[in-house]
Amino acid sequence: MFRANGYYADLQGGYLFSEIARRVASYQKQHPGADIIRMGIGDVTRPLAPCVITALHNAVNEMADAASFRGYGPEQGYDFLREAIVAADYRARGISITPDEVFVSDGAKCDVGNIQELFGRDTVVALMDPVYPVYADTNVMTGRAGKYNKEEGGYENIVYLPCTAQNGFVPDLPKRPADVIYLCYPNNPTGMTITRAQLKAFVEYALENKALLLYDSAYEIFIGDPDAPHSVFEIEGANRCAIEFRSLSKTAGFTGVRCAYAVVPKALRCRDDNGGDVSLHDMWFRRQSTRFNGVPYITQRGAEAIFSEEGRKQILEIAAYYMQNARIICQSMQKAGYTVYGGLNAPYIWLQTPGGDSWAFFDELLNTKQIVGTPGAGFGKAGEGYFRMTAFASRENTLRAMERICGQA
Ligand SMILES: *Cc1c(COP(=O)(O)O)cnc(C)c1O
């Protein structure tokens, strides 16, 4: 008899953004003329940079000619892109990563989920709370999270690392032993980032405890603080205990084009379930070669363009546009009397909800101002009492939204 994966039944509620979409659709049905402004899901709104468009067009033309046509490419990505990534994102910052440590993929969301295939049977996972729901849900699906405890508001086998106003939204080191620690900085949803000293403490913990850090720096381009770390590999020893995930989605508006990469250093070695000494780099290489056939050539040429000097300039301008929206939101919300966090190193504003109930605040904002945000509770227990607004809307819509909330922007 066929049986389905029972762990799916342990998932809580729908995917957060499906629930938001359901509530918005229901409101829209009751108020067909409503002019709803969306500051909920973290999707970008600016078009691709001109250099990317040119590169994409050129690559399409190459595909039209038998002499330059490309079929299957290397599963790990073309050398031209892996080299461009290393030069711009690592070598330029004095970090020694080699192109063959970079694995090009079609999304960081897929990568952070797929990487679990390399984990041993009894791996204990630590997650920040609040957290990007993908880390949590994919661990539930593989059975690593255990049962959901309603009273505790969490899964039994997950080590939660609360991120609160008290700790500046950077968690303390795990109090229970953890084998894998997911960190995301600059952070979604809080919009806050980590200092180099704080990151160093996590790297030292991982080296001492033979734990693995999964460092998601999808929002690296938005860092405004000159002292904030851009990569986990800026920290000595991180190449022996960390994997880094980056994405062009927020960096260069690739949410619909799809391109990301993971850096798995060759120095990263560990024990497997049978006591063998293994290389996670070799395992990931094997995994990607077997299960993945690479990112489209056209996409990789488009991606390559952002790592040129001109491309970098163009995407920084787009990032600055969103960060100006973030400043507008922070200033307006503060003026309206809200306590706000984030918005300086990431395009997210994390505000304290008056009254505490974040879904109630969601409904109120939708019903009275026709503005959609994201309730903090959707990101975990410690997210209750907070509400996420994104700076990814157009300037016009950001200003209109702030006018509705504050009377002025
Ligand atoms: C948006 C986002 C990503 C990017 O995912 P893609 O699949 O590359 O679009 C990764 N991590 C976090 C925390 C994000 O918010």
What do these coordinates show?
A 7-stranded mixed sheet has the order 2-10-9-8-7-3-6, with helices on both faces. Strands 13-14-17-16 form a 4-stranded antiparallel sheet. Helices cover 36% and strands 15% of the residues. The chain has 2 domains: 12-47 and 311-406, Aspartate Aminotransferase, domain 1; 54-308, Aspartate Aminotransferase, domain 2 (3-Layer(aba) Sandwich). Strand 4 and strand 5 form a beta hairpin. The mean pLDDT is 96. Helix 3 (79-90) runs parallel beside helix 9. It is globular and about 55 Å long. It has 12 helices and 17 strands. By secondary structure, the chain is α/β, with parallel strands linked by helices. It has helices at residues 16-30, 50-63, 79-90, 108-114, 133-141, 196-209, 248-252, 280-291, 297-305, 309-335, 358-369, 395-406; strands at 37-38, 102-105, 125-129, 148-149, 154-155, 159-162, 180-184, 212-216, 242-247, 260-263, 269-271, 277-279, 340-342, 348-352, 371-372, 374-375, 386-390.
Concise synopsis of the structure shown:
This protein is α/β, with parallel strands linked by helices. It has helices at residues 16-30, 50-63, 79-90, 108-114, 133-141, 196-209, 248-252, 280-291, 297-305, 309-335, 358-369, 395-406, and strands spanning 37-38, 102-105, 125-129, 148-149, 154-155, 159-162, 180-184, 212-216, 242-247, 260-263, 269-271, 277-279, 340-342, 348-352, 371-372, 374-375, 386-390. It has two domains: 12-47 and 311-406, Aspartate Aminotransferase, domain 1 (Alpha-Beta Complex); 54-308, 3-Layer(aba) Sandwich (Aspartate Aminotransferase, domain 2), CATH 3.40.640.
